[in-house]
What does this fold into?
Amino acid sequence: MDLATPAQDQRKSVGRLTRLMARSLSMVWQSARRPFLALIGLQLLNAIALALQIIAVQLALTALLQITAIAGDLWRLVQPVMLLAGLTAVTAVIASVQVGLWRYAGELVVAVMWKRVLRVATRVDLRKFESARFYDRLQRVQANAQTRPYQITYGLVATIGAVAASAALVVTIVLIHPTLLPLLLVGGVPVLLTSRRQSQLESDFLARQTQSMRLRGYLTWVQTGRDEAKEVRAFGLARNFGQRLNTLYADYLRDLAQHLWHRSRLGALGSLGSAILLALTLFLLAWLISTSRLGIAEAAAALVAIRLLAGQVQSGLNGVQAIFESGSFIDDLDGFLTLAPAAEGGSREIAPPADFHRIRADAVSFSYPGRSQLALQAASIEINHGEVVALVGENGSGKTTLAKVMAGLYEPGSGAVRWDGTDVRTFRPDLFRERVAIIFQDYVKYALSAEENIAVARPDDEIYHAAVREAARLADADSFLSALPSGYQTPLSRRFVGGHELSGGQWQKVAIARAFYRSAPLVIIDEPTAALDARAEYELFSSLHEVLRGRSALIISHRFSTVRTADRIYVLDHGRVVEQGSHDELVALGGQYAELFHLQASAYSVDSVLD
Ligand SMILES: Nc1ncnc2c1ncn2[C@@H]1O[C@H](COP(=O)(O)OP(=O)(O)O)[C@@H](O)[C@H]1O
Ligand SMILES: [Mg+2]
It folds into this structure.
């Protein structure tokens, strides 16, 4: 969760509005063309109906006045009154149809937007996720993705509709009597002034409260989180967090009350202004009538037009406000989506070979974005076909980083990873990644069935049930998976009905089965033994060569009982390869490896006594 983002930029300018309008238009146009066109069509219809209402009012009054003059002829009134009633009905129907259409269009925009965002999020260079700016932006897009597309669709339709309706009203009034035009325009002024100021107040308030809102969201989330629940109880955090939340809420509510008070005062002021203006308009109209410059019917039509126009100005301003409020979301989304071309991996088309004789990392260096220190410094390692190679080293020595470079997830800053002499950067990235089965230190525990948790290693194939079982058997996971309530179909998360939670060691075995299930010539497993007990580890790794069946493996481990079975061991220190050789060679060398080995051997003997 992102707490550090500065208050949203709420600057308003015509240039920015034009740009945001254009972006909103293209977004809605590309994802919801038909409902959008229907909505615009309805708005135009609405504009015409409004204009016709003015004419109907005028006709009705003219007829009424004639009735009083030529007594008895009530029939003259029927037509204009029917017209007025019909038009009122039409605008009401339009409004209700629009609600449904608007919701549907908004949902279409949401769907298309998610498709694009996920396309980029899942393909963009992994290094991007190390950048706080990138990740914050992604989080903000995600947080707003459910509501903003609706707001954008609404804002666009409301603005276009209000412009069309205002134009229609103006034209009608000019047709009735050109001198009424200035009156009409003045009528919109109070709303324009007060609602502009109101929306300014609103965005100031939101900007002021953004930080507190995030913090409140976070504190609520922590106190309801599934993973956090145990720690909240164990540490007794509820009171502390609850108090913080109360303080924040109290501040927020105080600010809200003040803000609402300001807003309603402003609203009252606007209404008062409108009333005074209306009175003045009435006087003016009366004067125009008394001096025979204007008929009573025209004057009444003008009054109705003024009221309708004020409504349209208000709805147009709401639309513009909605677009402005979505502005930072649109910026974030655009900023995020422009990363797409880089995500496609350029024009590399060469397919990697199905297998290899030798993989070499040649003097590979790598640094994480925003870090000056190199995580890897000219590290060279070699894996021959069918070999098990181990990486050892202290925390932070670069083992995981090297594994990711070997798997093609990071590109080295200098040096290269070569498969039989060919730089892997010339291979098509997605095809190259298919050649590697990597299980991370923090592998993902999918809230899917046991079978799917293994079969995700071949996501594009159908699930081969027998092969899943075989992989599980090799990873020593078959016995406890078959014993689950619904066997391999049991969801591995209590989040779902009938779900079952595995222990840490059991999960580790499922992850290892995942690596075996993927048909890749190179298997990389980062600290596979961390959660395994000594017996499980021994059983798994003493037979690793047989289990791999001709595949090669790069294993990262702190346990020497695992490491010593490897054909070759590389010792990393501060990103450099400092020692290499077999277990016996390295122990004989008496260097860092030997030191770590003896340290653990003595600790182990103490442990086994305590066990
Ligand atoms: N995502 C990251 N962003 C920045 N630095 C990182 C990141 N991951 C690891 N590092 C740094 O790179 C170095 C090597 O880390 P890593 O490869 O994870 O070591 P190991 O797996 O041997 O414990 C460490 O100094 C670590 O702090
Ligand atoms: Mg690591």
